[in-house]
């Protein structure tokens, strides 16, 4: 049986997320986009509203939600401001390796205090020379007595200069390349860690993106998640987990642009009539509407499959790729429908278009998603 209606539980989550997004995020979105900083207190407010660390189990301070519940939240937050929302959403992603691969002691030591205390965590995989090719990271974590000593530079870490906990991917056995990579939890106040750059971005400016330099950073070997050499599979599994979240965030961005464009096209008069009466404009809106609906359906399907325990590698890559391409296309078309004013900073569609671009890049670029999809299709 297929049922496209949302359950009572999902409707409650959607209404709660929408209220929070419209009351706490939307009114400050433009201000923090200009400032290029994370609004103070927003993470604590999200925690209070039950919208932080949503996929972390309740026993460790999260909400214990599944992928579909999480996707519904991400769309609502994304429709208000994807920059502010990514700080809220990526926290759960950064904590996922501890949730999935940490032992009981590590969960008590790292997961619970961060999740319960509404503190920030950062996922530190990317390096300057290792982006799409994450298997070529060079940061090392060499065993020394009971410790690992970490050296290297991690870039583009979301919440990097604000996080209290860093989940770092580094080579514990450099001779084995990607097979020698491991995942290590590193408290951000450990001596030797330096914020070497805070990025000034095109979009999602109300999020923090930082480069972190590790100079002889010493952490106990007991901070290793899972087994040594399993870092790469841990990274891939974590990113797989988060893909429908980026898709849902993209649907939110696209939906916001579509709603603004419809409103403006009905109100803006040229040649003595609303511009929506021109087929050239109304067909653009029709295409935008179709894409938003299709992106949401793909996203919900991928999330639903993950919740059923079904293998959703292809569907989650399709959802991320299609929804973020949709966000880019629909925000660009929304600017077109607004005409000259759409290009100005004081109109929200300009921000939506800048915000949309990164959705095609992070958590695996859309070229990489297409590679994943093609490989899965070739297996059929
Ligand atoms: C705002 C922001 C936040 C981020 N947050 C995080 C974070 O929290 N943690 C983290 O670890 N990383 C994070 N990243 C890093 C992000 O995941 C990488 O930027 C992304 O994976 C792409 O890597 P790259 O930038 O090195 O691009 P590259 O890998 O150098 O790619 C450049 C171009 O080449 C294409 N390309 C590369 N290889 C292939 C191929 N085989 N076939 C076809 N095309 C290819 C890419 O699609 C892209 O278009 C963030 C990045 C940004 C900008």
Write structural notes for this entry.
- This protein is α+β, with helices and mostly antiparallel strands and 380 residues long.
- The protein folds into three domains: 109 residues, Acyl-CoA dehydrogenase/oxidase, N-terminal domain (Butyryl-Coa Dehydrogenase, subunit A, domain 1, Orthogonal Bundle); 109 residues, Butyryl-CoA Dehydrogenase, subunit A, domain 2 (Beta Barrel); 146 residues, Up-down Bundle (Butyryl-CoA Dehydrogenase, subunit A, domain 3), CATH 1.20.140.
- The chain is built from ten helices and ten strands.
- The strands form three sheets. The chain has a four-stranded mixed sheet.
- Bound molecules: flavin-adenine dinucleotide (FAD).
- Helix percent band: 40-55%
- Total domain count: 3
- In DSSP terms, counting alpha (H) and pi (I) runs of 4 or more, how many helices? 10
Strand content is 15-25%
Q: Give the total of beta strands.
A: 10
Q: Biggest sheet: strands side by side, in what order?
A: 1-4-5-8
Residue-averaged pLDDT: 96
H/E element order: HHHHHEEEEEEEEHEEHHHH
User: Measured on Cα atoms, how large is the radius of gyration?
Assistant: 21 Å
Q: Which shape, going by the Cα principal axes?
A: globular
CATH superfamily of the largest domain: Butyryl-CoA Dehydrogenase, subunit A, domain 3
CATH topology of the largest domain: Butyryl-CoA Dehydrogenase, subunit A, domain 3
Unique bound compounds: flavin-adenine dinucleotide
Q: Work out the oligomeric state of the chains in this entry.
A: single chain
Low-confidence parts = none
* CATH second-level architecture of the largest domain: Up-down Bundle
Secondary structure class reads alpha+beta
**N/C terminus separation:** 24 Å
Briefly, what CATH class of the largest domain? Mainly Alpha
């Amino acid at each position: 049986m297929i049922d496209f209606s949302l359950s009572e539980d999902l409707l409650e989550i959607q209404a709660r997320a929408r209220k929070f997004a419209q009351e706490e995020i939307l009114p400050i979105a433009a201000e923090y986009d200009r400032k290029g900083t994370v609004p103070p207190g927003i993470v604590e407010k999200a925690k209070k509203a039950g919208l932080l660390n949503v996929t972390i189990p309740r026993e460790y301070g999260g909400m214990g939600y599944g992928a579909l519940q999480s996707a519904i939240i991400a769309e609502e937050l994304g429709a208000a401001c994807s920059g502010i929302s990514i700080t809220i959403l990526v926290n759960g992603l950064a904590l996922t390796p501890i949730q999935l691969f940490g032992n009981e002691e590590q969960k008590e030591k790292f997961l619970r205090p961060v999740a319960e205390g509404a503190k920030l965590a950062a996922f530190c995989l990317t390096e300057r020379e290792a982006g799409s090719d994450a298997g070529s990271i060079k940061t090392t974590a060499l065993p020394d007595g009971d410790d690992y000593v970490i050296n290297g530079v991690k870039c583009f870490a979301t919440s990097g200069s604000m996080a209290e906990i860093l989940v770092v991917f580094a080579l514990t056995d450099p001779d084995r390349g990607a097979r020698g990579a491991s995942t290590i939890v590193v408290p951000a106040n450990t001596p030797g860690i330096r914020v070497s750059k805070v990025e000034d971005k095109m979009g999602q400016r109300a999020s923090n993106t930082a480069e972190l330099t590790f100079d002889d950073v010493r952490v106990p070997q007991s901070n290793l998640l899972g087994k040594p050499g399993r870092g790469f599979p841990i990274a891939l599994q974590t990113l797989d987990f988060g893909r429908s979240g980026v898709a849902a965030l993209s649907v939110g961005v696209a939906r916001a642009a579509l709603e603004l464009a419809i409103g403006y096209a009905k109100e803006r008069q040229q040649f003595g009539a609303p511009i929506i009466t021109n087929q050239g404009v109304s067909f653009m809106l029709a295409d935008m509407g179709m894409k938003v609906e299709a992106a949401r359906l793909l996203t919900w399907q991928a999330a639903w499959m993950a919740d059923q325990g079904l293998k959703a590698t292809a569907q989650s890559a399709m959802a991320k790729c299609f929804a973020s391409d949709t966000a880019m296309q629909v925000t660009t078309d929304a600017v077109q429908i607004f005409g000259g004013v759409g290009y100005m900073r004081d109109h929200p569609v300009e921000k939506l278009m800048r915000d949309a671009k990164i959705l095609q890049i992070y958590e695996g670029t859309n070229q990489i998603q297409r590679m994943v999809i093609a490989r899965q299709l070739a297996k059929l």
